[in-house]
Design brief:
The complex is a heterodimer of chains A (440) and B (377). With 440 residues, chain A is α+β, with helices and mostly antiparallel strands. Chain A has four domains: 165 residues, Reverse transcriptase/Diguanylate cyclase domain (Alpha-Beta Plaits, 2-Layer Sandwich); 45 residues, DNA polymerase, domain 1 (Orthogonal Bundle); 99 residues, 2-Layer Sandwich (Dna Ligase, domain 1); 73 residues, SH3 type barrels. Chain A contains 13 helices and 18 strands. In chain A, helix 10 crosses helix 11 and helix 12 packs antiparallel against helix 13. Chain A is globular. The relative contact order of chain A is 0.11. Chain B starts with a strand and ends with a strand. Classes of the chains: A alpha+beta (440), B alpha+beta (377). At the A-B interface, strand 11 and strand 13 of A face strand 28 of B. Strand 13 of chain A pairs antiparallel with strand 28 of chain B.
Chain lengths: 440, 377
């Protein structure tokens, strides 16, 4: 624990749902649920309007539908989320070089490592840093964020929850124990419903209750790791540093198909394209890898990864692609694949080239595999939430689709709520709008 | 069936025949060794797994001829552990009694009728000196692929052209080639065969010690999908690999810009020492300058090591990096007092060959081409 409030935790509010409300003006102020819309789907994010009906992340989509039948149910647009996340992380990078992203919508920042480190003792500066940051995020992304600043990661994360959404909380050094004491133990990261239930049976509901137990008693209730950890966390005793740039362990790309794919040749082309993207990403980062992994998810969600370790590390698109193809050849395609992915791990910075490499020129000099749409893709399947373009009506998003028809609402982030039109799914004037590309 | 044989003779024979038997055979009889006792005073032991066959004939006092199939590894273990006295082998119904002094084993006889017929080796194509054959196979098979990526690369390519044999193997990172002479049956002998490297290496070790080795590839230039070896009383066959071997001629650099001659053992020891800090075969870097080569491994993040040793350099200075194991494999195979390394560029293949004198001529009958490593950019 530090003597200054210099660790900042940022959490974007209802991130996926907020991006959808930003880009779909007619949904602003209305319940929005993002996730897998199919019968087996789960909720990724619910907007605050939907949360009022009791919809939560990780809830089954069927339950979400029964609790909030009038919500807009949308498939995620991860390209849009990644882009927004990138902009937010850029804003954080201006505060300090030490930024530790936890996910697309959450990160720690070590303000003490940043340019404004000296006057941090004066609380006023921290407040203005947090206010400026939130304003900048809203200006660049149109989203709102909650910020907590404290003397440790634990307290910063807890603080960002206190005035959520769209709020700030600064825990002044020295007040940690008082802030934490009355909170439910579940406020401490890592204490989930099961652990909370075990603690409840030991008459522990608040952090203050937990402090009444000795370390040995907590270990008896929760086991070694959790017990010791809670003993320290309950006392706000947390000296974990902010770690920027966690070491990259692997580089991979994967994509879910709109409809399950059985065609081996088409999968082969996808694997080829992904191998090139992975190789390009390795080269950009000055890396090479020894193990090539193919990930497949079958039609019934059964997921397998198969890998092959080479005698020497490579960054060659040809070697990665050949290896991935060989792994694909061993996959049973009956029933089709929902998802395929190619990855390289065992990363290092040197390459064992192949004596034969010179003889075989790159078979397909495709200049930009990521951008080039696969001309052989099946006719597109329109899914709720997807960005589309119509030759006459302009940009919009899929409001609903099925039975050979697509209903589109024509509006974007920068327009007022727009009109709804229905087209045939095959309408040549209608096409998906790529606001993003699949990122490695 | 009933015969008596010396312990050492049986132990050596059955150990050799049983060495390639599968641990988990697809059919139980394939775990067996077939024993045939003949009235002519010989016992023949054979084993076959549809890929490789081995057969050996030994002298024995045969009281009653016959055929029996027993578990090969078990018989090998038993015969090795028996006291050094004559062993009696007798069949009694479905059992095989193995008696040696007061020790007695009773083994189950497996149904010999179900045992597959051993392949017949093609006709003899020529003979080669055993020690030369063993050395050449060892020099080349180190470069064969041990993985499962390209089955064709797990083989040694054997090319016969008159009285010349060229052995070659590559795992795509290094390539080893050895040229040698032999005594062909026909002066216009011409064959290309791809022999599984592991089997070839085992066979060459086992047969090379017995003097001259016969190689059986048959009459047709493509062979019959089978190669046979015979030396002394031992005969072996192995199925050839099928497929097109990659074109390798363009891999040999046509010229060299820099050449360095180094005492082989000195270089091997230096590379081994320095490579102690090269975890998981991270590269060793060799910097050749006038009169010496500086060898380094490791990075600033971890342990580092350097050593400089004497080296004669002709041509411009060069710095080049290798997988240390690949370099040591080649240096271990070269078999001469001095090693000659030839380079063009740091990113291009280097060639290792041997020579007996520091300023003598290069012996190019063995060449080991090694692809350097580079740093990812």
């Amino acid at each position: 624990m530090r003597s200054t409030a210099s660790i900042l935790h940022l959490d974007l509010d209802a991130f996926f749902a907020a991006v959808e409300q930003r880009d779909k003006p007619s949904l602003r102020g209305k319940p929005v649920i993002v996730g897998g819309i199919g019968p087996r789907g789960v909720v990724s994010t619910a907007s605050y309007e939907a949360r009022r009906s009791g919809v939560r992340s990780a809830m089954s989509m069927a339950e979400a539908r029964s609790r909030c039948p009038h919500a807009a149910f949308l498939w995620g647009r991860f390209g849009a989320y990644r882009e927004a996340s990138r902009l937010v992380m850029e804003c954080l990078g201006k505060l300090s070089p030490l930024v530790e992203p936890l996910s697309l919508d959450e990160a720690f920042v070590d303000l003490a490592a940043g340019p404004s480190s000296t006057p941090l003792n004066a609380g006023g500066d921290v407040e203005s840093i947090a206010a400026d940051l939130r304003a900048e995020i809203t200006r660049t992304t149109g989203l709102t964020a909650s910020v907590g600043v404290a003397s440790s990661k634990l307290m910063a994360k807890i603080a960002s929850e206190i005035n959520k959404p769209d709020g700030v909380c600064i825990v002044q050094p020295g007040t940690e124990l008082d802030v934490l004491g009355p909170m439910q133990v579940t406020a401490i990261p890592g204490i989930g419903p099961a652990t909370a239930e075990r603690l409840r049976r030991a008459s522990v509901e608040t952090v203050h209750d937990a402090r009444q137990l000795s370390e040995d008693e907590l270990v008896r209730v929760l086991g070694q790791a959790s017990g010791r950890s809670l003993f320290r966390m309950a006392r706000a005793d947390d000296d974990r540093p902010v770690v920027a740039d966690r070491e990259t362990k692997s580089i991979s790309i994967e994509d879910t198909f709109e409809v399950d794919v059985v065609d081996r040749e088409r999968l082969g082309r996808t694997v080829e394209r992904m191998s090139r993207s992975v190789a390009a990403k390795l080269t950009t980062n000055g890396l090479s890898g020894r193990t090539v992994t193919l990930k497949v998810r079958h039609h019934d969600f059964e997921t397998h990864t198969r890998s092959s370790t080479l005698a020497g590390p490579t960054d060659s698109p040809r070697v990665i692609s050949e290896t991935a193809h060989r792994l694909l050849a061993a996959v049973d395609l009956r029933g089709g694949l929902r998802l395929v992915g190619v990855g390289v791990s065992g990363l290092t910075d040197w390459v064992q080239d192949d004596l034969f490499d010179d003889d075989r020129p790159d078979p397909d000099p495709d200049p930009d595999p990521e951008q080039a749409p696969d001309p052989t893709e099946q006719p597109v399947t329109y899914r709720a939430g997807m960005d589309v373009h119509h030759a006459e009506h302009g940009d919009g998003w899929v409001w609903g689709a099925g039975l050979g028809r697509v209903t589109v609402r024509f509006e974007t982030r920068h327009t007022p709520p727009g009109p709804v039109h229905t087209f045939a799914a095959q309408d040549p004037d209608l096409c998906p709008r790529r606001t993003y590309t699949v990122e490695p | 069936m009933k015969f008596r044989v010396e312990r050492d003779v049986l132990a050596e024979a059955v150990t050799w025949v049983a060495r390639g038997l599968p641990n988990h055979p697809p059919v139980p009889v394939l775990a067996g060794v077939l024993i045939v006792a003949s009235d002519e005073g010989t016992v023949t032991l054979s084993a076959f797994d549809y890929e490789v066959s081995a057969r050996i004939t030994i002298a024995a006092e045969v009281a009653e001829s016959g055929t029996v199939l027993v578990l090969g590894r078990l018989l090998a273990d038993i015969s090795r552990n028996l006291p050094p006295r004559p062993i009696d082998v007798v069949t009694e119904g479905t059992k095989v009694q193995v008696t040696c002094g007061s020790t007695r084993f009773s083994l189950l006889a497996m149904p010999a009728d179900d045992y597959p017929t051993l392949p017949i080796a093609p006709a003899v194509s020529g003979t080669i000196a055993g020690d030369v054959f063993t050395e050449a196979v060892a020099q080349v098979s180190i470069a064969a692929d041990r993985g499962d990526t390209l089955p064709i690369l797990t083989g040694v390519r054997v090319e016969i052209d008159g009285d010349k044999i060229t052995l070659l193997a590559t795992d795509r990172y290094r390539l080893a080639m050895r040229e040698l002479t032999w005594n062909p049956e026909a002066t216009d002998a011409s064959h290309v065969a791809l022999v599984p490297a592991r089997t070839l290496s085992d066979t060459a070790k086992a047969l090379g010690a017995l003097g001259s080795v016969e190689i059986h590839l048959g009459g047709s230039s493509s062979g019959d999908g089978l190669i046979g070896f015979e030396a002394g009383q031992r005969r072996a066959t192995t199925r050839l690999l099928d497929g097109e071997y990659p074109k390798v001629t363009s891999i040999f650099p046509s010229s060299a810009d820099s050449e360095s001659v180094i005492e082989t053992t000195v270089l091997v020891e230096a590379v081994k020492r320095v490579a102690l800090v090269a975890e998981r075969n991270t590269p060793v870097r060799l910097r050749f300058s006038d009169g010496q080569v500086a060898i380094e491994a490791g990075t600033g993040d971890g342990a580092q090591a350097t050593e400089a040793i004497e080296a004669v350099l002709t041509g411009p200075e060069i710095e080049i990096a290798f997988n240390p194991q690949f370099l040591l494999d080649g240096l271990g195979a070269v078999g001469t007092a001095y090693s000659r390394l030839s380079f063009t560029q740091s990113s291009r293949p280097a060639v290792l060959s041997g020579q007996d004198e520091v300023d003598g001529p290069a012996d190019t009958s063995y060449r080991y081409v090694l692809m350097p490593v580079r740093f990812a950019s």
